[in-house]
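Notes from the pairing session

We agreed to fold both candidates in a single pass and log them together. This is the raw record for the first candidate, unedited. Please don't reformat it; downstream parsing expects exactly this layout.

Candidate A
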Amino acid sequence: MLRSRERAILILGGAAAALILLVVFAVIPGVNKVTTLSRASSLAERELAEVRGMRPELTRLDREVRPKAERVAATANPSVSTLTRLTTAIQEAGFPPSAVTLKSAGTRDGEYFSEESFDLKVDNITYLEALRLLSRLENGPLPVVVRTAQFKSRYDDSRYLDGTLRLGFLKPTAK
């Protein structure tokens, strides 16, 4: 049998081992979890403050997008192809078919809209005609977005331009 002194040492050693195991397996992971959660909480608070700061800009962008979205919805499901509709709109703007080349460049699907891309090449136009074309495409009856516009002066007469436009024709996505 154990003497009382040995028994006390054994009990104190067991208590110390239990305390060490408790600290290693319960307290340290708990402290690490609290630290991680507090960092995540402060990061979430900063991101929320950024989103609240962007609210006026988001509402302004929403006001700008609504008319275009209404035009997209109004021109959905026509019986005529998109290429034909764009060609007709460009000819109505006063450009002869010989000065215009329109080619399809693929599609992109977004969350609310799909976009069919076209490359429009226009030869021998004036600066004023280029501005009118850009304005008519962006603000006209068709839901068209001008993604890029590159114009170069003609080598034979600097009063005229040759241009390449990347157009996006917007359509509602099927949900």
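Candidate B (folded immediately after A)
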Amino acid sequence: MKPPRLVLIPLLFLSLFEFASGRATGQQPTVPSKSVLPDLDLLALSQPLQDLTPSDRRIVYETINLIQRKQHAEALAKLIGLTASNPMNSALRIIRAYVLLELGNVAGALGDARIAEGSGGALHSAYQCWFLAQVAYLAGDTPLCRREIRHLAGDPSYGKKAEQLGDSLAAKSK
């Protein structure tokens, strides 16, 4: 089944953005394989999702269902509308970054992960830093990845994983 035309237009734009931003920064993003994609931890995102209206939360549940069924283009279409009406909701940005990674748009995912991590708000969680560190790693943004790894040093949930990511980063740069 082909995605509707309304989905293809934003996907084309996002793909062009990824190409242009990769060229502009000189970074060579890594095309993510399924084994290195960050996990989407919905429990860690539950607090910012509570800030949404009931109708927006219903759309989030539909979107998560689409993600579980690997219908990422359709999920992205829903997330574009949600993030437009809730631009600083960190959970929506992380979910959208995850979907963009699934679609191969590393630069777009990095942009959303940065916004999520920088949104502050009522909740700034270690998960936001962990997610951004992983996306920065995939995007080849070594300074950003290192910064987020430092933020996670000693964190009981993500500290050890961040240390391992730092080891991978060091091995990759040799």
